[in-house]
Amino acid sequence: MSVNDIITSGAKPLFFLDYFATSHLDVDLAEKVIKGIVDGCQQSDCTLLGGETAEMPGFYADGEYDLSGFAVGVVKKDSVIDGKNITVGDVLIGLPSSGVHSNGFSLVRRVLAQSGLSLQDHLPGESITLGEALLAPTVIYVKQVLDFISKGGVKGIAHITGGGFTDNIPRVFPKGLGALICEGSWVVPPVFKWIQEAGRIEDAEMSRTFNMGIGMVLVVSKEAAGTILGDGHGSNTAYRIGEVVKGDGVRYQ
Question: Is the pTM for the entire model greater than 0.70?
């Protein structure tokens, strides 16, 4: 998540540092956690520079731990992507998520409890369990997005985290501009459909809480959109999900 935030400014992640805290260090568990961090750093060409491990007896329950970290990146001042050049008619390109990513879990836990299902039960209609669907690792978009940026025409980037489409996309627009989203223009993962049906959640609340299958949105010129969509295939799937319009906020059609 940290490196995904960094690339919204057009910056390249340089290094990451972690903090791991627990009551009693379980070496096997810690190794698994660090391996996950290393995998993420490799996916983003980012160095795991160091970190801190803290043991605080009695502070955490057995098997529990706190994990945090931060990343540092670099971008030339004249190459910062800040959205100031976004204009009406620019295209919104969505990059698919792997699922819930790291946001909305308070609501997810409530829905899971109300559903009467467990994490070991299968996601209805699918071959994977609810646990596998809900805890799918967050997509790291660094290499894909930096490649798009290198081709030119990328004017703004929104990482779709807490606040979903409703809060995150407008943050990159100059005053007086908004987004028109074309519903049905991308594949919504089954896990979101289950959350909505099991929790009886309205569309507006879903779009304000979850990424709904789009983890990163790029605001690009029409010319750049053609290049990006032409390159979007296989693991680098990209969708044209809407455009920039006059007004404020996000509208759907």
Answer: yes
Q: What is the spatial distance between Cα 153 and Cα 148, in angstroms, rounded to a whole number?
A: 9
Q: In 3D, which of 129, 122, 134 has the Cα closest to residue 97?
A: 134
Count of other CB atoms within 10 angstroms of residue 111: 20
Confidence tier at 230 by pLDDT (50, 70, 90): confident
Residue 150 main-chain phi, psi, to 5 deg: -65, -20
**Which tokens go with 12?**
């390249």
Alpha-carbon distance of 57 to 228, in angstroms, equals 51
CA distance 13 to 228: 22
**Measured between alpha carbons, how far apart are the two ends of the chain, in Å?**
29
**How far from 172 is each of 11, 146, 165, CA to CA, in Å?**
16, 18, 12
The confidence score (pLDDT) of residue 16 equals 96
DSSP calls for 149-163? HHTS-EEEEEE--TT
Q: What is the pLDDT of residue 154?
A: 95
How far is the C-alpha of 208 from the C-alpha of 226, rounded, in Å? 29
Strand, helix or coil for residue 12: strand
Q: What is the pLDDT of residue 63?
A: 85
**H/E element, 207:** helix 203-209
